[in-house]
Amino acid sequence: MPRNESLELDLVALLERRQTRRGFKKPIDDEKLGEFFWLSCRSRSSHSSPFGPDQESRVHPSAGALHPIHVLVSRSAGPWMRYDPVEHALIELPGSTNSAAAGRNAANRIFNLNQGVLLGLVAEPGKTEAKYDNHETLVWRDAGVLLGYMSLIAEALHLDFCPLGITGQTHLTDFLPEASRLQAAGLAVLGAD
Ligand SMILES: Cc1cc2nc3c(=O)[nH]c(=O)nc-3n(C[C@H](O)[C@H](O)[C@H](O)COP(=O)(O)O)c2cc1C
Protein backbone atom coordinates (compact mmCIF):
# COMPACT_ATOMS: atom_id res chain seq x y z
CA MET A 1 0.00 0.00 0.00
CA PRO A 2 1.42 3.44 -0.86
CA ARG A 3 1.84 5.79 2.04
CA ASN A 4 0.33 9.01 0.74
CA GLU A 5 -1.11 10.59 3.85
CA SER A 6 1.12 13.04 5.64
CA LEU A 7 3.26 12.04 8.61
CA GLU A 8 3.45 15.03 10.90
CA LEU A 9 6.63 15.10 12.90
CA ASP A 10 9.08 17.45 14.48
CA LEU A 11 12.33 16.86 12.58
CA VAL A 12 14.48 18.29 15.36
CA ALA A 13 12.78 16.03 17.90
CA LEU A 14 13.18 13.03 15.59
CA LEU A 15 16.89 13.68 15.20
CA GLU A 16 17.23 14.07 18.96
CA ARG A 17 15.47 10.82 19.80
CA ARG A 18 16.87 8.54 17.06
CA GLN A 19 18.96 5.75 18.43
CA THR A 20 19.77 2.17 17.53
CA ARG A 21 17.05 -0.03 19.03
CA ARG A 22 17.57 -3.77 19.30
CA GLY A 23 14.41 -5.06 21.03
CA PHE A 24 12.50 -6.53 18.06
CA LYS A 25 9.99 -8.01 20.51
CA LYS A 26 6.95 -7.92 18.22
CA PRO A 27 6.55 -9.00 14.60
CA ILE A 28 6.27 -6.14 12.15
CA ASP A 29 3.01 -6.32 10.17
CA ASP A 30 2.82 -6.04 6.37
CA GLU A 31 1.32 -2.55 6.49
CA LYS A 32 4.16 -1.17 8.61
CA LEU A 33 6.79 -2.94 6.51
CA GLY A 34 5.16 -1.44 3.41
CA GLU A 35 5.23 2.02 4.95
CA PHE A 36 8.91 1.59 5.82
CA PHE A 37 9.82 0.62 2.25
CA TRP A 38 7.59 3.28 0.72
CA LEU A 39 9.24 6.01 2.74
CA SER A 40 12.83 4.80 2.48
CA CYS A 41 13.32 2.87 -0.77
CA ARG A 42 10.70 3.39 -3.43
CA SER A 43 11.47 4.81 -6.85
CA ARG A 44 9.58 8.08 -7.41
CA SER A 45 10.42 8.34 -11.11
CA SER A 46 12.99 7.14 -13.62
CA HIS A 47 14.21 7.93 -17.09
CA SER A 48 16.51 6.26 -19.59
CA SER A 49 20.12 7.42 -19.51
CA PRO A 50 23.08 7.46 -21.89
CA PHE A 51 24.94 5.13 -19.47
CA GLY A 52 22.67 2.12 -19.94
CA PRO A 53 20.84 1.68 -16.63
CA ASP A 54 17.92 4.02 -15.98
CA GLN A 55 18.51 6.99 -13.69
CA GLU A 56 16.04 7.23 -10.85
CA SER A 57 14.72 9.64 -8.30
CA ARG A 58 14.25 8.15 -4.83
CA VAL A 59 13.96 9.81 -1.44
CA HIS A 60 17.71 9.48 -0.86
CA PRO A 61 20.60 10.55 -3.10
CA SER A 62 22.73 8.12 -5.11
CA ALA A 63 25.91 8.55 -7.15
CA GLY A 64 24.84 9.37 -10.70
CA ALA A 65 21.19 8.70 -9.74
CA LEU A 66 21.93 5.05 -10.56
CA HIS A 67 20.77 3.53 -7.25
CA PRO A 68 22.89 0.34 -7.26
CA ILE A 69 21.59 -1.06 -3.94
CA HIS A 70 18.81 -3.67 -3.90
CA VAL A 71 17.10 -4.55 -0.62
CA LEU A 72 16.21 -8.11 0.35
CA VAL A 73 14.03 -9.16 3.29
CA SER A 74 14.02 -12.35 5.33
CA ARG A 75 11.24 -13.11 7.78
CA SER A 76 11.47 -16.02 10.21
CA ALA A 77 11.33 -18.70 7.50
CA GLY A 78 11.16 -18.91 3.73
CA PRO A 79 13.23 -17.43 0.93
CA TRP A 80 14.72 -13.97 0.52
CA MET A 81 12.21 -11.48 -0.90
CA ARG A 82 13.40 -8.52 -2.99
CA TYR A 83 11.78 -5.14 -2.59
CA ASP A 84 10.82 -3.84 -6.02
CA PRO A 85 11.13 -0.04 -5.71
CA VAL A 86 9.12 0.64 -8.88
CA GLU A 87 6.19 -1.72 -8.21
CA HIS A 88 6.38 -1.23 -4.42
CA ALA A 89 6.11 -5.00 -3.97
CA LEU A 90 8.06 -7.87 -2.43
CA ILE A 91 9.18 -10.46 -4.98
CA GLU A 92 10.19 -13.96 -3.86
CA LEU A 93 13.69 -15.05 -4.88
CA PRO A 94 13.44 -18.74 -5.81
CA GLY A 95 15.97 -21.14 -4.34
CA SER A 96 17.05 -18.74 -1.60
CA THR A 97 15.45 -20.38 1.46
CA ASN A 98 18.67 -21.95 2.76
CA SER A 99 20.65 -18.77 2.13
CA ALA A 100 18.09 -16.67 4.01
CA ALA A 101 18.18 -19.11 6.96
CA ALA A 102 21.98 -19.00 6.97
CA GLY A 103 21.86 -15.18 6.90
CA ARG A 104 19.52 -15.15 9.87
CA ASN A 105 21.78 -17.56 11.75
CA ALA A 106 24.81 -15.36 11.06
CA ALA A 107 22.92 -12.27 12.28
CA ASN A 108 21.65 -14.14 15.34
CA ARG A 109 25.23 -14.78 16.36
CA ILE A 110 25.66 -10.99 16.76
CA PHE A 111 22.51 -10.48 18.81
CA ASN A 112 19.07 -12.05 19.20
CA LEU A 113 16.88 -11.06 16.26
CA ASN A 114 13.77 -12.08 18.21
CA GLN A 115 10.84 -11.15 15.93
CA GLY A 116 12.91 -8.80 13.74
CA VAL A 117 13.09 -9.09 9.97
CA LEU A 118 16.51 -9.22 8.39
CA LEU A 119 17.20 -6.69 5.63
CA GLY A 120 19.99 -7.40 3.16
CA LEU A 121 21.65 -4.76 1.01
CA VAL A 122 22.87 -6.17 -2.30
CA ALA A 123 24.92 -4.00 -4.61
CA GLU A 124 24.83 -4.10 -8.40
CA PRO A 125 28.18 -2.38 -9.02
CA GLY A 126 27.71 -2.52 -12.80
CA LYS A 127 25.11 0.25 -12.56
CA THR A 128 27.55 2.72 -10.99
CA GLU A 129 30.43 1.44 -13.14
CA ALA A 130 28.42 2.40 -16.23
CA LYS A 131 29.06 6.06 -15.38
CA TYR A 132 32.14 6.19 -13.12
CA ASP A 133 35.66 4.75 -13.51
CA ASN A 134 36.29 4.57 -9.75
CA HIS A 135 32.95 3.14 -8.81
CA GLU A 136 33.98 0.78 -5.98
CA THR A 137 33.75 3.21 -3.07
CA LEU A 138 30.70 4.98 -4.50
CA VAL A 139 28.68 1.79 -4.14
CA TRP A 140 29.62 1.45 -0.45
CA ARG A 141 28.74 5.10 0.14
CA ASP A 142 25.38 4.53 -1.54
CA ALA A 143 24.76 1.64 0.91
CA GLY A 144 25.64 3.93 3.84
CA VAL A 145 23.26 6.65 2.65
CA LEU A 146 20.46 4.11 2.46
CA LEU A 147 21.15 2.79 5.98
CA GLY A 148 21.07 6.35 7.31
CA TYR A 149 17.70 7.05 5.71
CA MET A 150 16.35 3.72 6.94
CA SER A 151 17.40 4.52 10.51
CA LEU A 152 15.50 7.80 10.45
CA ILE A 153 12.39 6.38 8.79
CA ALA A 154 12.35 3.53 11.32
CA GLU A 155 12.49 6.02 14.17
CA ALA A 156 9.73 8.12 12.60
CA LEU A 157 7.53 5.00 12.38
CA HIS A 158 8.42 3.96 15.96
CA LEU A 159 10.20 0.82 14.77
CA ASP A 160 13.39 -0.78 16.05
CA PHE A 161 16.32 -0.69 13.63
CA CYS A 162 19.95 -1.78 13.83
CA PRO A 163 22.55 -2.03 11.06
CA LEU A 164 24.96 -4.97 11.32
CA GLY A 165 28.72 -4.90 10.83
CA ILE A 166 28.73 -8.08 8.72
CA THR A 167 28.11 -7.63 4.99
CA GLY A 168 25.89 -10.68 4.47
CA GLN A 169 28.47 -12.29 2.21
CA THR A 170 27.81 -15.10 1.09
CA HIS A 171 24.19 -15.54 2.17
CA LEU A 172 22.83 -12.61 0.14
CA THR A 173 24.19 -13.75 -3.19
CA ASP A 174 25.17 -17.44 -3.19
CA PHE A 175 21.81 -18.58 -4.66
CA LEU A 176 22.14 -16.21 -7.64
CA PRO A 177 23.68 -17.13 -11.02
CA GLU A 178 27.39 -16.34 -11.09
CA ALA A 179 26.92 -13.96 -14.04
CA SER A 180 24.69 -11.62 -12.02
CA ARG A 181 27.73 -9.77 -10.59
CA LEU A 182 25.92 -8.77 -7.41
CA GLN A 183 27.73 -8.27 -4.11
CA ALA A 184 26.61 -8.25 -0.49
CA ALA A 185 26.75 -4.71 0.94
CA GLY A 186 25.36 -4.99 4.45
CA LEU A 187 22.65 -6.30 6.76
CA ALA A 188 20.24 -4.62 9.15
CA VAL A 189 17.41 -5.71 11.42
CA LEU A 190 13.99 -4.07 11.54
CA GLY A 191 11.21 -4.79 13.98
CA ALA A 192 8.57 -3.55 16.33
CA ASP A 193 8.64 -3.20 20.10
C1 LIG B 1 27.70 0.33 9.49
C2 LIG B 1 27.18 0.04 10.87
C3 LIG B 1 27.37 -1.21 11.42
C4 LIG B 1 26.87 -1.52 12.68
N1 LIG B 1 27.03 -2.79 13.17
C5 LIG B 1 26.44 -3.13 14.35
C6 LIG B 1 26.50 -4.47 14.83
O1 LIG B 1 27.07 -5.36 14.19
N2 LIG B 1 25.91 -4.77 16.01
C7 LIG B 1 25.25 -3.80 16.74
O2 LIG B 1 24.72 -4.14 17.80
N3 LIG B 1 25.18 -2.52 16.31
C8 LIG B 1 25.74 -2.16 15.13
N4 LIG B 1 25.65 -0.87 14.66
C9 LIG B 1 24.96 0.15 15.47
C10 LIG B 1 25.97 0.99 16.23
O3 LIG B 1 26.53 0.24 17.28
C11 LIG B 1 25.29 2.25 16.76
O4 LIG B 1 24.85 3.05 15.67
C12 LIG B 1 26.26 3.04 17.64
O5 LIG B 1 26.53 2.37 18.84
C13 LIG B 1 25.71 4.43 17.98
O6 LIG B 1 24.49 4.30 18.69
P1 LIG B 1 23.15 5.00 18.19
O7 LIG B 1 22.86 4.50 16.80
O8 LIG B 1 22.10 4.58 19.19
O9 LIG B 1 23.39 6.47 18.20
C14 LIG B 1 26.16 -0.53 13.43
C15 LIG B 1 25.98 0.74 12.86
C16 LIG B 1 26.47 1.02 11.60
C17 LIG B 1 26.22 2.38 11.00
Entry summary:
The protein is an alpha+beta fold and 193 residues long. It contains five helices and eight strands; from the N terminus they run H-H-E-E-E-E-E-H-E-H-H-E-E. The chain is globular.
Strand fraction band? 15-25%
Q: How would a textbook summarize the main sheet?
A: 6 strands, antiparallel
Roughly how many Å is the radius of gyration?
16 Å
For the largest sheet, list the strands in their spatial order.
Answer: 5-4-3-6-8-7
Question: How would you classify the helix and strand content by structural class?
Answer: alpha+beta
What keywords describe this structure?
193 residues; alpha+beta; 29% helix; binds flavin mononucleotide
Give your account of this protein's structure.
This protein is an alpha+beta fold. It is 29% helix and 23% strand. The strands form 2 sheets. Strands 5-4-3-6-8-7 form a 6-stranded antiparallel sheet, sandwiched between helices. Strands 1-2 form a two-stranded antiparallel ribbon. A hairpin with a 6-residue loop joins strand 3 and strand 4. The chain is globular and about 45 Å long. It starts with 10 loop residues before the first helix and ends with a strand. The model has no long low-confidence stretch (mean pLDDT 95).
